[in-house]
User: Fold these one by one.
Assistant:
Number 1:
Amino acid sequence: MKAERSEYRVVIVGAGVIGLYTAHHLARRGAGPILIVDRGFLSSGASGRNGGGVRQQWQTRATIRLARESVAAYRRFARDFGYNPWFRQSGYLFLAEDAAALERLGPVHELVRSEGLSSEWVDAAGVARHVPGIRPGAAVGGTYLGSDGTLYPFPVVWGLHDALRAAGVEILHGIEALGVERDGGRVRALQTSRGRIATPTVVNAAGGWSREFSERCGLAVANRATRHEILATEPLKPFLDPMVVRASDGLYFSQTMRGEIVGGLSPLADPTGSIAMSSSAGFLGRMARALVDLLPGLASVGVLRAWSGLYDDTPDGLPIVGEDPALSGFVHANGFGGHGMMLAPSSTERVARLVLGERIDLDPAEFGPGRFASTGSGRPTEALQLG
Ligand SMILES: Cc1cc2nc3c(=O)[nH]c(=O)nc-3n(C[C@H](O)[C@H](O)[C@H](O)COP(=O)(O)OP(=O)(O)OC[C@H]3O[C@@H](n4cnc5c(N)ncnc54)[C@H](O)[C@@H]3O)c2cc1C
């Protein structure tokens, strides 16, 4: 397929949740024509490979606010888009395995409460009420926020995709973005595997490949892609409401409406740096041991599927939202790590406003692409890179 026009107001690279939601906010504001190009198929990136966790417990105020807005958007999603992502606000439990881990959760709990959210401290008995079957002694306590939850990512992608098509946004798959054509320090066109597309604005929403695309455009960025594996067990009788997250090893899991336990844990350092989206027996073993250690009753449960996807990580754990300081018209909407699903609705609204030349309420020192050039002392970091 070829683009219908030779020129667009905005071209977005990447038809994952970030690119699609950005286009949605632009289209709602009447900005057009808009084109989204993607070299893969719909949901081929992380947006079709994630755990669907949506939480508002963060250690930076701006991220709590973004997540809170996203929760409101996902509550409305089925009504707004006609696809139901089954956003279930059944809570997120950060559990601490010892006193030191519990202490680290303290400031998060305080900050979340200061934002008006009803984060609760739970003791070991409280953890056991939220996680029936947990091994005695496996946790000393934790924090719980009942309005956090989980959703199915696919209906989000489909709902956005169909709404955009209906609004006249072009979405082309099988087209690779190869670079940009510049006019001085400005974007003039996107170069693609199907030729040149004139535009003053290119949005880099290429997820785990955002660094590759930025480099193709001659831009130095701090993003780094990492491969994360995840699995789903056979369905079990419903017993678990919240998403459970353990800080020590990044173990996270929830039970879906079908009864499957879906989750993963922080990957081991990979000296090859491979971002091939493959699954490994090593992950299956580590994940099984971690889960069964916490919930011994799962010892004989079968694994149905395992897969992997890319996190687009940044050094400070915060996404990158902003125009590149070295190239006008090149807007970053990337670096979402393991949290792009939950931050998409709100953060992309800021991306759209930036594209339209409006002021936004995100501090460039916290979210801008230029922040990594400074020494960074005193800059916020988001260390709660879990679940
Ligand atoms: C295992 C796993 C679990 C996760 N769990 C959660 C979770 O519980 N909650 C949460 O909020 N987030 C989670 N995430 C993170 C979340 O999935 C991502 O942050 C989010 O999907 C990123 O969306 P995106 O649109 O930026 O990227 P993607 O969905 O990856 O889309 C990027 C698109 O860009 C396209 N592309 C790349 N390069 C080019 C190019 N040069 N030309 C054309 N197209 C290109 C790709 O084909 C791809 O379709 C998880 C991720 C993984 C991998």
Number 2:
Amino acid sequence: MVFDLRPEIAAFRAEVRAFCREELPAELAAKVRAHRWLDKGERERWQRILYRRGWAAGHWPRAWGGLDWSPLQRFVFNEELERAGAPWLTPFGINYVGPILLAHGSDAQRERHLPSILRSEVWWCQGYSEPGAGSDLAGLATRAERRGDRYVVNGQKTWTTMAQWADWMFCLVRTARGERPQHGISLLLIDLRTPGITIRPIATMDECHHVNEVFFADVEVPLANLVGEEGEAWGYTKVFLTHERILATELGKADRLLADVAALAARVFEAGAPLASGAGFRRRRAALGVRRDALEALAYDALDRFERGEEPAVEAAALKIRGSELQQAISELAVDVLAHAGLGYDTGSIMDAAADEDLRRAETGWLFEHFYGRAFTIYGGTNEIQRAIIARQALGL
Ligand SMILES: Cc1cc2nc3c(=O)[nH]c(=O)nc-3n(C[C@H](O)[C@H](O)[C@H](O)COP(=O)(O)OP(=O)(O)OC[C@H]3O[C@@H](n4cnc5c(N)ncnc54)[C@H](O)[C@@H]3O)c2cc1C
């Protein structure tokens, strides 16, 4: 089931679908569908294809290379890309720091950074979390002291996704201590080539390099790299939150995963019959489909309200919870389908069809999805924090 609310949205969806059919390189889509790791060059390649079509940042204003897409258009665009198996669009430039600069940056900052973000020439990472500040972000301790025409930054960030590939970081720092911990937090744009910065990988259970620790020792940052007002950055962090949580629904990806898990179950045999035809699998698959449809209804309701100028923060929190949980539940089903064959991460399959290279790859890919998927309910604000938002804002608790 796909909601198409208005004819122009249905036409836009069809256009995006046709574009993916024609322009999405088959080898990239095959890697995404097999849950393979994509390197920086592969991600850049797809983002540049979108740039050439004028779709690198459709939600940005036209004056800065965007198309003024509505939240609904943007959602449909992402949904279709996910469904087609397009590489995940790296959000740090286009979705995070770009909108912050559009809302709070200086003209000089916009002119310097937005064009290179649009063209995927410069990569960004997000320096918010610290060892003692995750959910409680206002507890961050990385300090920036003013000395003449510079700030001197000392401290540590953690869980910084893709810092190993990034050229720049948008970084929350403490410039003062206020009455409340949210006061005195500033946003700096930091060139990662500046002396005094050390980036170290954090090992994750899938054995890939997603995240890093970033250390700052007397790192000098020009005052001109302060975004907005000193000490006022707490409000800037909210620029993209509702929108990002709605996008975290990842409806198109859920559809792709559901189709793939059914295909996997059709190839795995138990007592001479494919698992896909067994009642146990069909019941679980159907229950996931119902959850997927409920998610779609909630997402389009939230988008409708967004388009009418409301801020559906509660719905966005619910979508983040339900979207991430659904993806985890689908990969859990795949791991159960694989059964004992799933024990062999990154090694050959021990299934009957061990000679079948496709199945071996499916096994490792699903485990990669399953392992990394533990993070879906943590990053972007943990699901417990989303539940607290719902409790406060919807239930008044
Ligand atoms: C794969 C991955 C990539 C990430 N990428 C980035 C990145 O690029 N940049 C960046 O800045 N950060 C990034 N993060 C960090 C992420 O934002 C934090 O992990 C997240 O905000 C949780 O913070 P924490 O890890 O400190 O856990 P904590 O905040 O210590 O939470 C631990 C547990 O306690 C629960 N908890 C905490 N407070 C409450 C509360 N008030 N009520 C109920 N339960 C609570 C949490 O839900 C969680 O279950 C990433 C994290 C992961 C896992």
